[in-house]
Amino acid sequence: MANTRQAKKRIRITAKRTLRNRQVKSRVKTAVRRFNDTLAQEDLESAGEKLRLAVKMLDKAVSKGVLHKNAASRKKSRLARRYNDALAQAEGE
Q1: pTM reported for the whole predicted model
Q2: Considering 5, 67, 68, 84, which has the largest number of Cβ atoms within 10 A of its Cβ?
Q3: Which stretches of 41-68 are DSSP H helices?
């Protein structure tokens, strides 16, 4: 157990930040899952909107320091590639 005032304060701050980080990560995962679900239903218009929301959530997570910018960039790239592949496949049919 922490003895000093500062150590106790750090415990409180860490708990607060952990809670915030968990919420932000959850929002990101939810946005990505909604995009994936919409894409699986082959609703490309709606999937485009969900992609924009997922990218927005990823950017917010980076700005809050929850995700590293390269990790978010990698995730955005993979989502966009899946969306573009689905578009190309729909146009080819």
Answers
A1: 0.87
A2: 67
A3: 44-63
Angle, CA 78 vertex, CA 43 and CA 28 arms, to 5°: 75
How is residue 37 written in tokens?
A: 């679900």
Q: Which residue has the tokens 């590293």?
A: 68
Place of tokens 């729909």: 90
**15-69 residue pLDDT tens:** 999 999 999 999 999 999 999 999 999 999 999 999 999 999 999 999 999 999 9
CA nearest neighbour of 62 among 52, 72, 53: 72
Cα–Cα distance for residue pair 51/83, rounded to 1 Å: 8
Superfamily holding 5-92: Ribosomal protein S20 (1.20.58.110)
